[in-house]
Amino acid sequence: MTKALNKQDLISAVAEEADLPKVKTAEVIEAVLATIERALKEKQEVRLVGFGTFAAATRKAAKGRNPRTGEEIDIPASTSVRFKPGKSLKEAVA
Q: Is the same domain home to 49 and 30?
């Protein structure tokens, strides 16, 4: 299994790639992530052409069953984030 790329690793890699100081790179990455988060909170899609699309998805409330007891339970409505990779990203990973 390969090592996961954490935020500090990402900052270091972007700083090196863009030839920027790590402090400035960290500010930019934080701003980008905050902007994406704010847009998703407002139910807006974030489309990064070639990379992918982030969207907030709402799941309706539903009835379910407890697998141990068979008892019917209420599953509350929820919102989650979905990511659909773009063509370029799919091709780069394949």
A: no
